[in-house]
Design a protein that fits this description.
Layout: H1 3-22, H2 26-31, E1 33-40, E2 46-48, H3 50-63, E3 68-78, E4 83-93, E5 106-114, E6 120-129, H4 136-147
Parallel strand pairs: 1-6
Antiparallel strand pairs: 1-2, 3-4, 4-5, 5-6
Length: 154
């Protein structure tokens, strides 16, 4: 798989992850992971394996409306023939809102591997708060960048 093909595959996997989150679909989200895949959530929660990931997400989606992600891929890097890394930034739009909440912005890292069937699956997804302690200008800059993703083109 050439560099552009890996970039396309990983970007699609990341977009599918955001779509599953935004649709509050724990099963679809867990299905994107490798059998032993891991997730580190915004609050530091660590869950391992598809079943645990799905079981962790179900009550989150059921207990309260979750903000929707908007994300921007910053880099995709192949780590060999069957492994790759994606780095992204993301903002969250509260339910019923039209603007991101800057306090929920995140730096995201996704590591994926290509399975025997050719399908790319998430081995690790890490969602870190973009707090930028002591650097409010960085937080503002990221907020403006993500806010542009919520505006219609034109």
């Amino acid at each position: 798989m050439a560099g552009a093909e890996i970039e396309h595959a990983l970007t699609r996997l990341y977009q599918d992850l955001l779509v599953a989150w935004n649709g509050c679909n724990a099963g679809a989200m867990a299905d994107l992971y490798a059998a032993g895949g891991s997730q580190v959530g915004f609050d530091g929660s660590v869950v391992n394996g598809r079943q645990e990931i799905e079981a962790h997400l179900r009550p989150i989606f059921a207990s309260h409306p979750t903000p929707a992600f908007v994300g921007k891929v910053r880099e995709v890097r192949g780590l060999g023939r069957d492994a790759a890394l994606l780095r992204a930034v993301a903002g969250m739009v509260p339910p019923g809102g039209s603007d991101i909440n800057p306090d929920l912005s995140a730096i995201q890292t996704l590591v994926a591997s290509r399975a025997a069937d050719g399908r790319w699956r998430i081995e690790m997804f890490h969602n870190t708060p973009a707090a930028f302690h002591g650097r409010p200008h960085e937080k503002k800059k990221l907020t403006q960048e993500l806010r542009a993703l919520t505006k219609p083109a034109g």
